[in-house]
Design a protein that fits this description.
single chain; 17 helices; mainly alpha; 0% strand; globular; 408 residues
Length: 408
């Protein structure tokens, strides 16, 4: 028996439900670690490399299981996969809170990061695509607009909770939030099993005005586009994974006072939201691949500003705005560009395969960047981020040129 979801598949209630679960998901499973990592290290009495090594192992496995998660979404629907995923996420957070040594800590962290593939944006984008087909672009923009508040809310929330409980208590609360908030929302609002992708797309085309399957890339053009997109996502994944975990350390390394660094770091979240709002209001007339390379270019430019004048709060603030806007738009194009190029058929599997190539580079980022900051300093480390993000922008620009040539 199918659960009732909404009067209109893919309507506002689905977007709001997914938005709430993305805020709780990214906030509890990802951003909280930035604040809690020093407390975890101090509690266990080991070197920081062990703390970040556990995260790296988890991210690696998460990338490895991403194609499987995508296939399960295509086969069974997002309701089942995301409901089970949020339940496992809650249990993993509770297990992490009870870790008493390196083995139990790494085991809990590995499971926690592995299940993120079933609850983070890629899965949520698949839910919207299953509900709206090729017309999902605007819904994806609205979803990421809500999800952009995750870091803005959970960084100060986690810091405030540490005044009352230790890091274990914080993770216990966040584990309960997954079970009591995210599980019900996923269960009651998400699409259940759907038709086979090809059938669903064919049925949706007359009613929604979706473009015929033949308009999507195929053959060598599809393979080239996939490789460029996977390369760009992998390089951006390294930058975002490294910077998100170490942003406060990076800003303090340029000479900013700790309080100023926190303020600058907090500007990234609202900048993400602002970028997504601009895209939602004015992006309809712009091709997703164009949005992709233009937004990607903002990231190395912002980092270059930080390198030039990172000790000046105003310039550091400009970095936060550029970097945050790039991150915000990047989350949108992660869903809209594959949809434009490859179509809605088998979208879950496509997203999983795009995530897989960058699993090692993204997983290694927090630990590698921690070592780089400690041994090579902030200048070299920032140059590394500029190089990676710049190459990602070039790959997306080449993708846009290929797409423009294919459409002529």
């Amino acid at each position: 028996m199918a659960w009732p979801i909404t009067s209109r598949p893919g309507g506002p209630s689905l977007i709001v439900a997914l938005g709430v679960t993305q805020v709780f998901g990214y906030g509890a499973l990802y951003y909280a670690f930035t604040v809690l990592a020093p407390r975890i290290t101090e509690s266990f009495g080991w070197a920081p490399e062990w703390t970040f090594g556990g995260l790296a192992a988890g991210l690696f496995l998460g990338g490895a299981v991403a194609p499987l998660t995508g296939s399960l979404i295509d086969r069974y629907g997002t309701r089942l996969v995301m409901t089970v995923g949020s339940a496992l996420a809650g249990l993993s957070l509770l297990a992490l809170a009870e870790a008493r040594g390196i083995v139990s800590y790494v085991a809990a962290m590995v499971v926690l990061q592995a299940v993120t593939t079933a609850v983070f944006y890629d899965a949520a984008f698949a839910a919207l695509t299953q509900a709206r087909g090729s017309q999902a672009r605007r819904a994806i923009s609205k979803l990421t607009l809500i999800g952009g508040f995750a870091s803005t809310l959970f960084w100060p929330l986690t810091s405030s909770l540490l005044a009352w409980v230790d890091w274990r208590g914080v993770y216990r609360l966040y584990g309960l939030s997954q079970l009591l908030v995210c599980v019900p929302l996923h269960l009651f609002f998400l699409p259940g099993r759907v038709k086979r992708p090809a059938e669903a797309h064919a049925a949706a085309a007359p009613a929604t005005g979706a473009e015929p399957e033949a308009t999507y890339l195929a053959g060598d053009a599809r393979r080239r586009a996939f490789l460029l997109l996977a390369l760009a996502f992998s390089l951006q994944g390294f930058v975002v994974s490294a910077a998100s975990i170490h942003i406060l350390t990076l800003l303090r390394g340029f000479g900013l006072a700790p309080a100023v660094a926190v303020v600058i770091g907090a500007m990234i979240g609202p900048s993400q939201v602002a970028g997504r709002l601009i895209e939602m209001l004015f992006g309809r007339s712009v091709s997703p691949v164009t949005t992709a390379w233009v937004s990607a270019l903002l990231m190395p430019l912002g980092l270059l500003l930080l390198l030039i004048g990172g000790d000046v709060p105003v310039i550091a603030g400009c970095f936060a705005v550029g970097y945050g806007t790039s991150m915000g738009l990047g989350s949108i194009v992660r869903g809209t560009v594959p949809l434009q190029l490859f179509g809605p058929a088998g979208f879950g599997a496509t997203m999983g395969k795009l995530s897989a190539p960058g699993l090692a580079i993204k997983a290694a980022a927090p630990l590698a960047f921690a070592v780089s900051l400690e041994r090579a300093g902030v200048t070299f480390s920032t140059l590394l981020l500029i190089a990676f993000s710049g190459l990602a922008a070039i790959a997306l620009f080449l993708l846009a040129r290929q797409q423009r040539g294919a459409s002529i």
